[in-house]
Design brief:
Length: about 400
Protein backbone atom coordinates (compact mmCIF):
# COMPACT_ATOMS: atom_id res chain seq x y z
CA UNK A 1 0.00 0.00 0.00
CA UNK A 2 1.19 3.53 -0.70
CA UNK A 3 1.56 6.31 1.85
CA UNK A 4 -0.99 8.57 0.19
CA UNK A 5 -4.77 8.49 -0.11
CA UNK A 6 -5.52 5.68 -2.57
CA UNK A 7 -8.14 7.20 -4.88
CA UNK A 8 -7.95 4.72 -7.76
CA UNK A 9 -5.79 4.10 -10.80
CA UNK A 10 -4.91 6.06 -13.89
CA UNK A 11 -6.90 5.15 -17.00
CA UNK A 12 -5.96 5.63 -20.65
CA UNK A 13 -8.96 7.53 -22.09
CA UNK A 14 -8.38 5.99 -25.52
CA UNK A 15 -7.98 2.30 -24.75
CA UNK A 16 -9.53 2.19 -21.28
CA UNK A 17 -6.44 0.41 -19.98
CA UNK A 18 -5.88 0.76 -16.24
CA UNK A 19 -2.41 1.86 -15.17
CA UNK A 20 -0.59 3.03 -12.04
CA UNK A 21 -2.14 3.84 -8.68
CA UNK A 22 -3.31 7.37 -8.03
CA UNK A 23 -2.32 8.42 -4.51
CA UNK A 24 -3.04 11.90 -3.13
CA UNK A 25 -0.78 13.30 -0.43
CA UNK A 26 -3.03 14.14 2.57
CA UNK A 27 -1.09 17.39 3.01
CA UNK A 28 -2.43 18.52 -0.38
CA UNK A 29 -5.83 18.92 1.29
CA UNK A 30 -4.42 21.63 3.56
CA UNK A 31 -4.99 23.90 0.58
CA UNK A 32 -8.52 22.48 0.40
CA UNK A 33 -10.33 20.71 -2.39
CA UNK A 34 -13.25 20.82 -4.79
CA UNK A 35 -15.17 17.85 -6.19
CA UNK A 36 -17.28 18.96 -9.15
CA UNK A 37 -19.33 17.16 -11.78
CA UNK A 38 -22.86 16.66 -13.04
CA UNK A 39 -25.31 14.20 -11.48
CA UNK A 40 -24.13 10.64 -11.98
CA UNK A 41 -20.50 11.58 -12.62
CA UNK A 42 -19.33 9.89 -9.41
CA UNK A 43 -18.90 12.81 -6.96
CA UNK A 44 -20.30 11.01 -3.94
CA UNK A 45 -18.42 7.81 -4.78
CA UNK A 46 -15.14 9.70 -4.99
CA UNK A 47 -15.93 11.52 -1.76
CA UNK A 48 -16.63 8.25 0.07
CA UNK A 49 -13.29 6.82 -1.11
CA UNK A 50 -11.48 10.01 -0.08
CA UNK A 51 -13.06 10.08 3.39
CA UNK A 52 -12.40 6.37 3.99
CA UNK A 53 -8.75 6.85 3.06
CA UNK A 54 -8.41 9.80 5.45
CA UNK A 55 -9.94 7.77 8.29
CA UNK A 56 -7.65 4.86 7.46
CA UNK A 57 -4.72 7.22 8.00
CA UNK A 58 -6.06 8.54 11.29
CA UNK A 59 -7.47 11.88 10.11
CA UNK A 60 -10.88 12.69 11.66
CA UNK A 61 -13.64 13.95 9.38
CA UNK A 62 -16.63 16.20 10.04
CA UNK A 63 -19.03 15.79 7.13
CA UNK A 64 -22.11 17.94 6.54
CA UNK A 65 -24.62 15.93 4.54
CA UNK A 66 -27.60 17.84 3.05
CA UNK A 67 -28.59 14.91 0.78
CA UNK A 68 -28.43 12.00 3.22
CA UNK A 69 -25.98 9.89 1.17
CA UNK A 70 -22.97 9.81 3.47
CA UNK A 71 -24.43 7.44 6.07
CA UNK A 72 -23.43 4.72 3.59
CA UNK A 73 -19.93 5.19 4.99
CA UNK A 74 -21.08 3.21 8.03
CA UNK A 75 -21.90 0.14 5.91
CA UNK A 76 -18.63 -1.75 6.32
CA UNK A 77 -19.25 -5.50 5.98
CA UNK A 78 -16.17 -7.26 7.33
CA UNK A 79 -16.92 -10.65 5.74
CA UNK A 80 -18.62 -9.43 2.55
CA UNK A 81 -21.11 -12.28 2.90
CA UNK A 82 -24.63 -12.31 1.49
CA UNK A 83 -26.24 -12.15 4.95
CA UNK A 84 -24.61 -8.76 5.59
CA UNK A 85 -26.03 -7.29 2.40
CA UNK A 86 -29.51 -8.82 2.68
CA UNK A 87 -31.08 -6.20 5.02
CA UNK A 88 -30.05 -3.47 2.56
CA UNK A 89 -31.37 -5.05 -0.63
CA UNK A 90 -34.22 -3.20 -2.36
CA UNK A 91 -36.84 -5.96 -2.56
CA UNK A 92 -38.80 -4.21 -5.30
CA UNK A 93 -35.69 -3.69 -7.44
CA UNK A 94 -34.78 -7.36 -6.96
CA UNK A 95 -38.27 -8.41 -8.01
CA UNK A 96 -38.03 -6.38 -11.21
CA UNK A 97 -34.83 -8.28 -12.02
CA UNK A 98 -36.58 -11.60 -11.41
CA UNK A 99 -34.72 -12.34 -8.16
CA UNK A 100 -35.72 -12.97 -4.59
CA UNK A 101 -33.99 -10.99 -1.84
CA UNK A 102 -31.55 -13.76 -0.89
CA UNK A 103 -30.40 -14.23 -4.48
CA UNK A 104 -30.00 -10.48 -4.97
CA UNK A 105 -27.98 -10.27 -1.73
CA UNK A 106 -25.69 -13.10 -2.85
CA UNK A 107 -25.16 -11.45 -6.24
CA UNK A 108 -24.44 -8.10 -4.59
CA UNK A 109 -21.92 -9.67 -2.20
CA UNK A 110 -20.17 -11.39 -5.10
CA UNK A 111 -20.04 -8.13 -7.07
CA UNK A 112 -18.51 -6.28 -4.13
CA UNK A 113 -15.90 -8.98 -3.53
CA UNK A 114 -14.86 -8.92 -7.18
CA UNK A 115 -14.96 -5.13 -7.42
CA UNK A 116 -12.73 -4.66 -4.38
CA UNK A 117 -10.37 -7.42 -5.48
CA UNK A 118 -9.97 -5.73 -8.86
CA UNK A 119 -8.52 -2.74 -6.99
CA UNK A 120 -6.31 -4.84 -4.72
CA UNK A 121 -8.62 -4.66 -1.69
CA UNK A 122 -10.31 -7.34 0.37
CA UNK A 123 -12.06 -8.11 3.69
CA UNK A 124 -8.85 -7.46 5.63
CA UNK A 125 -8.82 -3.85 4.47
CA UNK A 126 -12.42 -3.42 5.60
CA UNK A 127 -11.62 -4.87 9.03
CA UNK A 128 -8.64 -2.53 9.39
CA UNK A 129 -10.68 0.52 8.36
CA UNK A 130 -13.49 -0.34 10.74
CA UNK A 131 -11.09 -0.74 13.67
CA UNK A 132 -9.23 2.46 12.83
CA UNK A 133 -12.12 4.85 13.41
CA UNK A 134 -15.43 5.53 15.10
CA UNK A 135 -18.50 6.83 13.24
CA UNK A 136 -21.60 8.74 14.33
CA UNK A 137 -24.52 10.13 12.34
CA UNK A 138 -25.86 13.24 14.06
CA UNK A 139 -29.43 14.28 13.22
CA UNK A 140 -30.26 17.70 14.67
CA UNK A 141 -33.98 18.12 15.15
CA UNK A 142 -34.60 14.38 14.89
CA UNK A 143 -34.11 11.17 16.88
CA UNK A 144 -33.43 9.11 13.73
CA UNK A 145 -29.71 9.22 14.49
CA UNK A 146 -27.86 10.77 17.42
CA UNK A 147 -29.65 14.05 18.27
CA UNK A 148 -27.50 17.16 18.34
CA UNK A 149 -28.36 19.74 20.97
CA UNK A 150 -28.18 22.83 18.80
CA UNK A 151 -29.67 25.15 21.42
CA UNK A 152 -26.97 24.16 23.88
CA UNK A 153 -24.94 26.61 21.80
CA UNK A 154 -26.50 29.40 23.86
CA UNK A 155 -24.25 28.28 26.73
CA UNK A 156 -21.50 30.71 27.66
CA UNK A 157 -18.24 30.18 25.74
CA UNK A 158 -15.38 28.37 27.45
CA UNK A 159 -13.00 31.30 26.85
CA UNK A 160 -13.25 34.96 27.91
CA UNK A 161 -15.33 36.88 25.38
CA UNK A 162 -12.63 39.47 24.72
CA UNK A 163 -10.11 36.75 23.79
CA UNK A 164 -12.19 35.56 20.82
CA UNK A 165 -14.53 38.48 20.22
CA UNK A 166 -14.74 38.24 16.42
CA UNK A 167 -15.36 34.48 16.33
CA UNK A 168 -17.89 34.57 19.16
CA UNK A 169 -19.81 37.37 17.50
CA UNK A 170 -19.92 35.24 14.35
CA UNK A 171 -21.34 32.39 16.44
CA UNK A 172 -23.95 34.73 17.89
CA UNK A 173 -24.92 35.84 14.39
CA UNK A 174 -25.37 32.20 13.34
CA UNK A 175 -27.54 31.47 16.39
CA UNK A 176 -29.68 34.58 15.92
CA UNK A 177 -30.08 34.08 12.17
CA UNK A 178 -31.09 30.50 12.79
CA UNK A 179 -33.61 31.24 15.50
CA UNK A 180 -35.22 34.03 13.50
CA UNK A 181 -35.27 31.84 10.41
CA UNK A 182 -37.14 29.18 12.35
CA UNK A 183 -39.84 31.68 13.29
CA UNK A 184 -39.88 33.26 9.80
CA UNK A 185 -38.54 36.65 10.87
CA UNK A 186 -36.20 38.76 8.70
CA UNK A 187 -32.72 38.14 10.08
CA UNK A 188 -30.20 40.49 8.47
CA UNK A 189 -27.57 40.82 11.23
CA UNK A 190 -26.99 44.55 10.58
CA UNK A 191 -30.37 45.80 9.37
CA UNK A 192 -32.99 43.72 11.18
CA UNK A 193 -33.99 45.19 14.58
CA UNK A 194 -34.92 41.74 16.00
CA UNK A 195 -31.51 40.38 14.98
CA UNK A 196 -29.61 43.29 16.49
CA UNK A 197 -31.70 43.07 19.66
CA UNK A 198 -31.20 39.30 20.18
CA UNK A 199 -27.49 39.54 19.38
CA UNK A 200 -27.15 42.29 21.99
CA UNK A 201 -28.92 40.14 24.61
CA UNK A 202 -26.70 37.12 23.96
CA UNK A 203 -23.44 39.09 23.80
CA UNK A 204 -24.26 40.88 27.05
CA UNK A 205 -24.81 37.53 28.80
CA UNK A 206 -21.70 35.92 27.31
CA UNK A 207 -19.51 38.89 28.27
CA UNK A 208 -20.69 38.36 31.84
CA UNK A 209 -19.75 34.69 31.59
CA UNK A 210 -23.39 33.58 31.71
CA UNK A 211 -25.16 31.22 29.35
CA UNK A 212 -28.77 31.38 28.26
CA UNK A 213 -31.49 28.82 27.81
CA UNK A 214 -34.18 29.54 25.26
CA UNK A 215 -36.53 30.17 28.19
CA UNK A 216 -34.04 32.65 29.62
CA UNK A 217 -33.66 34.38 26.28
CA UNK A 218 -37.44 34.73 25.96
CA UNK A 219 -37.56 36.19 29.46
CA UNK A 220 -34.97 38.79 28.51
CA UNK A 221 -36.93 39.63 25.37
CA UNK A 222 -39.89 40.34 27.64
CA UNK A 223 -37.84 42.33 30.17
CA UNK A 224 -34.58 43.51 28.55
CA UNK A 225 -31.67 44.17 30.95
CA UNK A 226 -30.77 47.40 29.13
CA UNK A 227 -32.61 50.50 27.91
CA UNK A 228 -30.47 51.51 24.91
CA UNK A 229 -29.26 49.82 21.70
CA UNK A 230 -26.29 51.74 20.36
CA UNK A 231 -27.05 55.43 20.68
CA UNK A 232 -30.84 55.05 20.60
CA UNK A 233 -33.32 54.36 23.37
CA UNK A 234 -34.62 50.78 23.27
CA UNK A 235 -38.16 51.99 22.63
CA UNK A 236 -36.97 53.79 19.50
CA UNK A 237 -34.67 51.05 18.18
CA UNK A 238 -37.06 48.16 18.91
CA UNK A 239 -40.43 49.16 20.38
CA UNK A 240 -42.28 47.13 22.99
CA UNK A 241 -45.01 45.91 20.61
CA UNK A 242 -42.31 44.48 18.29
CA UNK A 243 -40.55 42.84 21.25
CA UNK A 244 -43.83 41.25 22.33
CA UNK A 245 -44.39 39.89 18.83
CA UNK A 246 -40.87 38.38 18.85
CA UNK A 247 -41.42 36.99 22.35
CA UNK A 248 -44.61 35.22 21.28
CA UNK A 249 -42.97 33.78 18.15
CA UNK A 250 -40.05 32.37 20.16
CA UNK A 251 -42.38 31.07 22.85
CA UNK A 252 -44.53 29.27 20.28
CA UNK A 253 -41.35 27.68 18.94
CA UNK A 254 -40.36 26.60 22.44
CA UNK A 255 -43.83 25.17 23.13
CA UNK A 256 -44.01 23.18 19.89
CA UNK A 257 -43.68 19.41 20.54
CA UNK A 258 -41.75 19.03 17.28
CA UNK A 259 -39.08 21.41 18.60
CA UNK A 260 -38.27 19.26 21.63
CA UNK A 261 -35.72 17.19 19.71
CA UNK A 262 -33.70 20.34 18.97
CA UNK A 263 -33.00 20.69 22.69
CA UNK A 264 -31.65 17.21 23.43
CA UNK A 265 -28.72 15.06 22.45
CA UNK A 266 -24.98 15.56 22.18
CA UNK A 267 -23.52 19.05 22.58
CA UNK A 268 -22.16 20.78 19.51
CA UNK A 269 -18.57 20.28 20.70
CA UNK A 270 -16.06 19.94 17.85
CA UNK A 271 -13.44 18.15 19.97
CA UNK A 272 -15.99 15.49 20.94
CA UNK A 273 -17.28 15.24 17.40
CA UNK A 274 -13.82 14.60 15.94
CA UNK A 275 -12.52 12.07 18.47
CA UNK A 276 -14.12 9.03 20.08
CA UNK A 277 -13.74 8.64 23.87
CA UNK A 278 -10.95 6.10 23.25
CA UNK A 279 -9.04 8.62 21.13
CA UNK A 280 -9.74 7.10 17.73
CA UNK A 281 -10.48 9.50 14.88
CA UNK A 282 -14.18 9.88 14.28
CA UNK A 283 -16.31 10.25 11.21
CA UNK A 284 -18.95 12.73 12.39
CA UNK A 285 -21.75 13.05 9.83
CA UNK A 286 -24.15 15.93 10.47
CA UNK A 287 -27.16 14.89 8.40
CA UNK A 288 -29.56 17.70 7.48
CA UNK A 289 -31.53 15.98 4.68
CA UNK A 290 -34.62 15.72 6.90
CA UNK A 291 -34.74 19.45 7.66
CA UNK A 292 -36.48 22.35 5.93
CA UNK A 293 -34.26 24.76 3.99
CA UNK A 294 -34.04 27.43 6.69
CA UNK A 295 -33.29 24.76 9.31
CA UNK A 296 -30.47 23.33 7.16
CA UNK A 297 -28.90 26.78 6.84
CA UNK A 298 -29.23 27.33 10.61
CA UNK A 299 -27.52 24.06 11.52
CA UNK A 300 -24.83 24.30 8.83
CA UNK A 301 -23.87 27.87 9.72
CA UNK A 302 -23.72 27.04 13.41
CA UNK A 303 -21.55 23.95 12.84
CA UNK A 304 -19.17 25.86 10.56
CA UNK A 305 -18.87 28.73 13.04
CA UNK A 306 -18.13 26.24 15.84
CA UNK A 307 -15.42 24.66 13.66
CA UNK A 308 -13.96 28.10 12.99
CA UNK A 309 -13.80 28.94 16.70
CA UNK A 310 -12.30 25.51 17.45
CA UNK A 311 -9.75 25.94 14.67
CA UNK A 312 -8.50 29.21 16.15
CA UNK A 313 -7.62 27.41 19.40
CA UNK A 314 -5.39 24.83 17.70
CA UNK A 315 -1.63 25.17 17.42
CA UNK A 316 0.07 25.52 14.07
CA UNK A 317 0.98 22.40 12.10
CA UNK A 318 2.09 21.36 8.62
CA UNK A 319 0.07 18.12 8.75
CA UNK A 320 -3.61 17.54 8.12
CA UNK A 321 -5.26 17.56 11.56
CA UNK A 322 -8.91 17.23 10.46
CA UNK A 323 -11.06 17.56 7.36
CA UNK A 324 -14.40 19.31 6.94
CA UNK A 325 -16.38 17.92 4.01
CA UNK A 326 -19.66 19.25 2.65
CA UNK A 327 -21.67 17.26 0.14
CA UNK A 328 -23.57 19.42 -2.37
CA UNK A 329 -22.71 22.95 -1.36
CA UNK A 330 -25.22 24.60 -3.75
CA UNK A 331 -26.90 27.55 -2.02
CA UNK A 332 -24.50 27.58 0.95
CA UNK A 333 -21.54 29.35 -0.72
CA UNK A 334 -23.02 31.40 -3.60
CA UNK A 335 -21.31 34.16 -5.59
CA UNK A 336 -21.63 37.83 -4.63
CA UNK A 337 -23.96 39.49 -3.70
CA UNK A 338 -25.78 36.55 -2.04
CA UNK A 339 -24.64 36.17 1.56
CA UNK A 340 -26.28 33.32 3.51
CA UNK A 341 -25.03 32.74 7.09
CA UNK A 342 -22.96 29.77 5.88
CA UNK A 343 -20.83 31.81 3.48
CA UNK A 344 -18.78 33.80 5.98
CA UNK A 345 -17.43 30.87 8.04
CA UNK A 346 -16.74 28.82 4.90
CA UNK A 347 -14.70 31.64 3.38
CA UNK A 348 -12.80 32.13 6.64
CA UNK A 349 -11.94 28.43 6.83
CA UNK A 350 -10.79 28.38 3.21
CA UNK A 351 -8.56 31.41 3.79
CA UNK A 352 -7.15 30.64 7.23
CA UNK A 353 -7.59 27.01 8.33
CA UNK A 354 -4.44 25.69 6.61
CA UNK A 355 -2.17 27.05 9.34
CA UNK A 356 -4.02 24.99 11.97
CA UNK A 357 -4.05 21.82 9.85
CA UNK A 358 -7.74 21.90 8.93
CA UNK A 359 -8.70 21.07 5.34
CA UNK A 360 -12.00 21.79 3.62
CA UNK A 361 -13.42 19.82 0.67
CA UNK A 362 -16.63 20.93 -1.03
CA UNK A 363 -18.69 19.03 -3.61
CA UNK A 364 -21.06 20.57 -6.14
CA UNK A 365 -22.67 19.92 -9.51
CA UNK A 366 -22.11 23.44 -10.84
CA UNK A 367 -18.95 25.50 -10.25
CA UNK A 368 -20.87 28.66 -11.20
CA UNK A 369 -22.76 28.19 -7.92
CA UNK A 370 -19.60 28.88 -5.88
CA UNK A 371 -18.09 32.18 -4.79
CA UNK A 372 -15.00 32.85 -6.91
CA UNK A 373 -12.98 33.80 -3.81
CA UNK A 374 -13.60 30.30 -2.53
CA UNK A 375 -12.50 28.69 -5.80
CA UNK A 376 -9.28 30.69 -5.64
CA UNK A 377 -8.49 29.13 -2.25
CA UNK A 378 -8.98 25.49 -3.34
CA UNK A 379 -5.73 23.85 -4.38
CA UNK A 380 -6.97 20.38 -5.39
CA UNK A 381 -9.75 20.08 -7.98
CA UNK A 382 -11.34 16.73 -8.78
CA UNK A 383 -13.41 17.23 -11.91
CA UNK A 384 -16.02 14.91 -13.39
CA UNK A 385 -18.30 15.44 -16.37
CA UNK A 386 -19.52 19.02 -16.76
CA UNK A 387 -22.70 19.46 -18.77
CA UNK A 388 -22.70 23.18 -19.61
CA UNK A 389 -20.20 25.38 -21.39
CA UNK A 390 -20.64 27.95 -18.61
CA UNK A 391 -19.42 25.43 -16.02
CA UNK A 392 -16.43 24.47 -18.15
CA UNK A 393 -15.49 28.10 -18.69
CA UNK A 394 -15.76 28.82 -14.95
CA UNK A 395 -13.29 26.02 -14.17
CA UNK A 396 -10.96 26.97 -17.03
CA UNK A 397 -10.81 30.56 -15.84
CA UNK A 398 -10.13 29.31 -12.32
Amino acid sequence: MGDGLYLGRQVDPGSGAVGDRLDLDPADLLTHGLIVGMTGSGKTGLAIVLLEELLRQGVPVLAIDPKGDLANLLLLFETLDAASFEPWVDAEAARREGKDVKTAAADTAAAWKKGLADWGLGPGDIVALKKAHDAVVFTPGSRAGVPLNVLQSLDAPAVPFDSAEEDLRDEIQAIVSGLLGLVRVEADPLQSPPAVFLATLIERSWRAGKGLSLEGLIGQVAEPPFDKIGALPLETAFPRKDRQSLMMALNNLLASPSFESWREGEPLDVDRMLRAPDGRPRLAIVSTAHLADEERVFVTALVLDKVKTWMRRQGGTTELRALVYMDEVFGYFPPHPANPPTKRPLLTLLKQARAQGVGVVLATQNPVDLDYKGLANMGTWMVGTLQTQQDRERLESG
